[in-house]
Amino acid sequence: MVRTIWSGGCLRALSLLLPASSLLPAVAAHAADIPLAIIGPHEYDLPVDFKPFNVLVQYGDGNAAGSTYDSGGRRQPTGGSHTWAGMTKYVHFRSFDAIPHVGFAFEVIQSESFVLSQGTNYGGLGPTIVGPAVWFKPNAHSTFGIQTFMQTPVGTRDALSPSYWSNLSSFMFDYEWKHFSFDGDLGAIVASTKHKTGEHSYSPGTVFHSNLRFSWKASKIIEPFFAFDWQNTAGMRDNTANSWVSDSSGREVALGVGAMINISKRVSLTGRYSHSVDGRNVAETNAYYMKLVYLW
Question: What is the mean pLDDT of the chain?
Answer without folding.
Answer: 87
